[in-house]
Design a protein that fits this description.
With about 160 residues, this protein is mainly β. Helix content is about 10%, strand content about 45%. About 30% of the residues are buried.
């Protein structure tokens, strides 16, 4: 039996439309005091890890979605490159119908709330894009719950820019 393909339109990420999943962080003056517009991080469950990851042209289709429950995660592209992410609200059980896609401009970054389901970063057209990633040193080993949507729901998703 062939899988079902669901298309997700990807509006531009903004603080208001992304609030159920995390925060959008925009540039601010260097002398601005810390406030609620800054990334509200949870990194106290282990050693923080800030690194650059190079992703090779993943395309805009996905069939897996992941969450981290021990830390927040921050993602952003280098060199002002636009990219896409799919998310669903934090919950013990993924609500497949709640998966949304967003276009992330290269002049901001996103912070995912604890437990936010996510797939991405995704992009198309570029050979590769470098991203910065802030999480815990062992996030991908000890805090990485992934659901294979093909196996569990016979679904694939395609992000529509």
């Amino acid at each position: 039996m062939s899988s079902q393909l669901r298309q997700l339109k990807a509006p531009l990420v903004e603080a208001e439309n992304f609030a159920p999943y995390g925060q959008v962080i925009y540039p601010a003056p260097d002398d601005k005091p810390f406030d609620s517009q800054d990334a509200q991080l949870v990194l106290n469950q282990g050693q923080p890890r800030f690194y650059l990851m190079r992703l090779l042209r993943p395309g805009l289709k996905f069939s897996q979605i992941t969450r981290h429950t021990r830390c927040t995660q921050c993602l952003g592209s280098l060199h002002g490159k636009e990219w896409f992410i799919a998310v669903a609200p934090p919950a013990d059980e993924l609500q497949v119908d709640g998966i949304q896609a967003f276009r992330v401009a290269g002049d901001c970054f996103i912070k995912l709330e604890l437990g936010t389901w996510h797939a991405g970063p995704y992009f198309d057209g570029e050979e590769f894009i470098d991203f910065y990633n802030l999480e815990l040193a062992d996030t991908n080993i000890t805090d990485h719950e992934t659901i294979d949507l093909l196996q569990t729901h016979n679904l694939e998703f395609q992000i529509i820019p």
